[in-house]
Specification:
Chain lengths: ~180, ~140
């Protein structure tokens, strides 16, 4: 495989790694590459599969680009190509790391919040009430489904909630 | 019969929100015993705000927040990446189902929700807007 072909292939690979949802695009690009360079698609796919293992393993073990380069050379790639790949890795690793962190397990993740507030005008026990209520709708992701939770808060509860959330924010900020 | 009459009287006072002695006194029939009338009025007036608060607390409503707790964790590793330091927040909300439906044994459920820093920031933005809207309404 010539250097230009290799760099084109690497580009395709990293495109896929940074946008793992674009599977269709990746496959199309791969077959274009195969026809352009007169390589048959089957073996190309196998090679690509083994190449992809390296960045994934590197992510898991937080390897530096030096180590990625060493890995590739150990696998039998020429020094020039290994260095090129390692460079690309360094450039792309923040995006890839962020993606990996984003995939980390989250329990009952809060996705969305809606609210409304109003005044209770009257009830069956009290003819005129006039108290303010706040209703929150929290959308929570449970596994692969979303669940809606509806809660009502009084004003003092709301202010307490706001105060607590501000404390959480300060705490989170001191850790990042 | 006496108890039920008293019950109707107090319910009526609470419902109408009567706060003045004259209003309550006027509810009694003409020939009612004077001292008893005054005594009853006095007792009702003393209890009225407690009764109103209780009536309000037991209104039908959506599930109500009764308590909340939070904790901040730092995620240090996962199956997709072996070393990281990502802070995350766990929020536990204790929610009581509709009081009217529960009767004497309230059902309280605990919901634990996880928030990332971005979600928390967005939530705080939303809460801030609620606060601004509330003060706009209050100052009218």
């Amino acid at each position: 495989v010539s250097p230009q072909q290799f760099s084109a292939l690497t580009e395709v690979l990293f495109h896929f790694l940074t946008e793992p949802k674009e599977v269709e695009r990746f496959l199309t690009q791969l077959s274009d590459f195969a026809t352009m360079n007169k390589i048959s698609l089957g073996p190309l796919k196998n090679i690509v599969k083994s190449i992809l293992l390296v960045p994934n393993g590197a992510l898991k073990r937080n390897l530096s680009s030096e180590q990625v380069r060493a890995d590739f050379i150990a696998l039998g790639l020429s020094e020039e190509k290994a260095s090129y790949f390692a460079e690309q890795w360094k450039v792309n690793s923040p995006t890839l790391t962020r993606l990996a962190v984003g995939q980390t397990l989250m329990i009952n993740q809060l996705i969305d919040m809606e609210w409304k507030f109003g005044v209770t005008a009257g009830s069956s026990e009290l003819e005129k009430v006039g108290s303010i209520f706040l209703q929150l709708k929290l959308v929570i992701k449970k596994g692969s489904q979303t669940e809606n939770v509806y809660i009502e808060l009084t004003l003092p509860q709301f202010y307490n909630f706001l105060h607590e959330m501000e404390r959480v924010k300060t705490s989170l900020e001191s850790f990042s | 019969q006496l108890v039920s009459a008293l019950h109707s009287l107090t319910r009526h006072v609470v419902y109408r929100g009567l706060t003045r002695a004259e209003d309550i006194l006027s509810l009694f029939p003409e020939d009612f015993h004077q001292n008893l009338k005054n005594l009853l009025t006095k007792i009702i007036l003393e209890n009225i705000s407690a009764w109103r608060n209780e009536a309000q607390a037991s209104q039908i409503s959506l599930p109500r927040l009764v308590d909340m707790d939070w904790r901040v964790d730092i995620k240090t590793s996962s199956d997709s990446i072996s070393r990281m330091a990502v802070p995350t927040c766990l929020l536990q909300l204790k929610i009581q189902e509709d009081v009217v439906l529960c009767g004497n044994s309230p059902v309280v459920s605990a919901l634990t929700v996880e928030l990332s820093k971005e979600t928390l920031d967005t939530m705080l933005e939303g809460l801030g807007r609620i606060r601004d809207q509330l003060s706009a309404v209050a100052s009218k």
